[in-house]
Amino acid sequence: MIAIYNTHVGDVLMLIIADDHGQKVNYERNGKVARVFLEETGETVAWNIFEAKSILSDLTGDGQVKLSSEAVVTLNNELKKAGFDEILVDDKQPKFVVAEILEMEEHPDSDHLHICKVNVGFLDPVQIVCGAPNAAVGLKTVAALPGAMMPNGALIFPGELRGVASFGMLCSARELALPNAPQVRGIIELSSSLTAGAAFDAASMWE
Questions:
Q1: SS3 for the chain, per residue?
Q2: pLDDT tens, 37-54?
Q3: Which pLDDT value is given to residue 206?
Q4: pTM attached to this predicted model
Q5: Which residues contact 109 (CB under 8 A, 6 or more apart)?
Q6: Interatomic CA distance for residues 105 and 192, integer angstroms
Q7: What is the spatial distance between Cα 32 and Cα 78, in angstroms, rounded to a whole number?
Q8: How far apart are CA 63 and CA 129, in angstroms?
Q9: Mean pLDDT for the chain overall
Q10: For position 56, what pLDDT does the model report?
Q11: pLDDT tens digit string along 179-194?
């Protein structure tokens, strides 16, 4: 779940649950809560919470916000009061993590994409398609996992690149807006001593 507090459109907290893949959406609103759903399937893709500061008084700023466990409980109570049965998941999984490329093969329909098996700290490796020229087996880098919001506002969801499933994105320093980012193509190269799955901390892991 990606939480975005946007004062430009009013006192609204937007909770993005899933990718709409550009499909037609509709909404239903009860009180301060609106559910956004796919017209074809009825699947919920987002929630809009209006007059958000009357519900969560400590909301500040514009853009992505981190919700405490207490805030998620409060929001679930608000959904219930508005007559909705769905429950927001309190997801504490870090969305930018140290990742180690374990295996790599060339994409069958591309001259530059690689299909990587990547250790991101889960029980099993995940598959991420990457086009970086410096991608290599054994490299430790940064993965943006589904549910991440990039500095430019792009949202990361599971998807496909030229027909091959990709669970997230391997990131360059420029894509993460890191200071002194190299102005060349390529994903971040981190110290080999870092543990795959650890939350990426730019202050201590990036030079």
A1: CEEEEECECECEEEEECCCCCCCCEEEEEECCEEEEEECCCCCEEEEEEECHHHCCCCCCCCEECCCCHHHHHHHHHHHHHCCCCCCCCCCCCCCEEEEEEEEEEECCCCCCCEEEEEECCCCCCEEEEECCCCCCCCCEEEEECCCCECCCCCECCCEEECCEEECCEECCCCCCCCCCCCCCCCCCCCCCCCCCCCECCHHHHCC
A2: 999 999 999 999 999 999
A3: 83
A4: 0.84
A5: 162, 163, 164
A6: 21
A7: 8
A8: 28
A9: 91
A10: 93
A11: 888 877 899 999 999 9
Q: Are 48 and 13 in contact (CB under 8 A)?
A: yes
**Count of all residues that appear for the chain in the document:** 207
Q: Which whole number is the average pLDDT over 143-159? A: 90
What is the b/e burial string over 11-25, where b = at least 16 CB atoms within 10 angstroms of the residue's CB? Answer: bbbbbbbbebeeeee
pLDDT band (50, 70, 90) for residue 77: very high
Question: Where do the domains of the chain lie, and which CATH numbers do they carry?
Answer: 2-81 (3.30.1940), 96-205 (2.40.50.140)
